[in-house]
Structure formats: C-alpha cells, structure tokens
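From the shared-data thread, chain only:
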Amino acid sequence: MPENVTLECPFCHKITISAIHYPPVLQTSVSRAADRTSTKFYQTKEKTEITSGCSNCGKSQKEVEKALKEGSKDVDKEKKILERLKEQGFSSEITTKF
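Structure, as tokens:
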C-alpha cells in the first residue's frame, strides 16, 4: 500500500517535500504447461515518487528529484579537501570532482 510521506529537502534541510513511498511487495508469477503448473515468487523494489518541490527554498520538483538521486554537492567541503591536498604538497592538477 503506498503511503504519503514528507522528506527533508537536500538543499535547505527542512522537512517540506511531499512524496509517495511504495514499500517492497511479494508477488507471484504463474506459468502453466500441459502437465504442470509452476508458481514463482519475487519481490518488487521499494520506490519513492516525489510529488512536490520545496516550498521553503523554492526548488522545483525536478531539481529535488535529481539531488535526491545523485546527491547534493557541498562546495565548502570540496574547497577544504583541495586546500588540505595543497598543504600536503600535492602539486598536480586535480581533474576529477568529489
């Protein structure tokens, strides 16, 4: 049974986003032949569907979905890591993002 839940915004960290959560469900699949019937059980994956954007910071539904799926970026943390690497004597240019 799907249920309505409220989630924390990945940008402003306030609980303002509404979503529908589908828990995992055990389902069956039946195959029939002339001489026998076979029943197999499988479990569906849980799923969360975002239904609104953030009313506090104004981010849209698509931006919130993308941030929850990929993870939000912390620019301050990246700068601290780069500074720490430079202090330790790392002189090469860093081409990958954290």
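The longest strand covers residues 15-22.
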